[in-house]
Amino acid sequence: MVVTSMRIALFTETFLPKVDGIVNTLCHLLDHLARRGHESIVFAPSGGPNYYSRTRVVGLTGIPFPLYPELKLVPPVISVLDELRSFKPDLVHVVNPVSLGYVGLRHAHRLKLPLVASYHTDVPGFAVRWGLRLCYRPLVRFFRWMHNRADLNLCPSTVTQRELQAHGYQRVQVWTRGVDSHLFDPRHLDIQWRQRLTEGEPDKPLLLYVGRLSPEKRVDWLAPILDALPEVRLAVVGDGPARPQLERQFGRRAVHFTGYLSGADLAAAYASADVFVFPAANETLGNVVLEAMASGLPVVAARSGGLLDHVIDGETGYLFDPESQDALVDAVRRLVEKPETARSFGRCGRAHILSQSWEQVLDGLISQYTTLIESKGPASK
Predict the structure, then answer these.
(1) What confidence category does residue 64 fall into, taking pLDDT thresholds of 50, 70 and 90?
(2) Which residues lie closer than 8 Å to 127 by C-beta, 6 or more apart?
């Protein structure tokens, strides 16, 4: 069986209008599939657009997850078999499968379709951060069971791949992430943006955080940095359920919250900062870190998770003990006190990331799709 054009059905627990790394990756994928002449359909929780570019989006009613209200869980007992048969997919890809992902898994097995599952979020690790340590092992077993029913499992980093394999996950390959190094580029430094982000003090050292504002991201860990280094300014780009609490917690400290930014505005925010700080400790990768590196920023990140594929300690940034706020403060202090070192790390980071184009990464994924379809043979549709 030789594959020329493909029809890909994607089941995702999260999609527009929600903004996060998974949605960003999916949008790049859908655009790329269209450019390469492939057809796609997305099954997602309702509330978003009916189409994204040329891709039809089938919205399904979901129930807000109590610990994370922005995540809507579509009941796993629903059926979209008629929609799937009508589309006639060559392959099903379940993205971060939980409940709707299980629907996709069930239907793929029913129709004898090749099944890909991609692992994006360390939900068991987040459960520990949420104070639900007793849920850790049951969650590991649940996600392992789900993923081991797929023909191919994808994860975003070699670190995550090794962790999953150690937990008994099978058929795990790396699907890394790309970055638009033309959009995210140091040349987009904008003095007006720096004025805004520093709240009128552009000569002060400027730290930047970009990402969702939720408890597991540990943005609150940045407050001790401002206490220890009063000359430093911090810009927080993003939004989420923790924002009101964070704004209260940071109080009178020198912090500017921008809300979500995208496109040229986001690129200018990156390029106008001095150091990128990312305190989360359970990241399977972190798209924003790649964008920061492409923008020429040195990175301070926890010594854990998928970031270790890209943040090289003492070369593209500093890594800190993931459970030590003092170590985080010290890492930032070293870059603030030695701006030439920070700039050198930023140049090294951009050089490292230039080969990580979305085109290259997504062509690799299409190649994995093709290999799997060819190996499985024609499906029963």
Answers:
(1) confident
(2) 133, 135, 136, 139
Rounded Cα distance, 249 and 242, in Å = 10
Rounded Cα gap, residues 30 and 366, in angstroms:
11
pTM: 0.89
Domains of the chain: 7-178+357-376 (3.40.50.2000), 186-353 (3.40.50.2000)
Answer whether residue 325 shows pLDDT above 80. yes
Query: What pLDDT does residue 379 have?
Result: 53
* Rounded Cα gap, residues 357 and 299, in angstroms: 20
Kind of pairing, strands 68-73 and 51-52? Answer: unpaired
Name, in order, each residue with C-beta under 8 angstroms of 126's C-beta and a sequence gap of 6 or more: 216, 282
| The two structure tokens encoding residue 308 | 């270790």
pLDDT of 2? 53
CA triple 233-235-239, angle to 5 deg? 150
Question: How many whole angstroms separate alpha carbon 20 and alpha carbon 121?
Answer: 11
Rounded CA gap, 122 and 284, in Å? 7
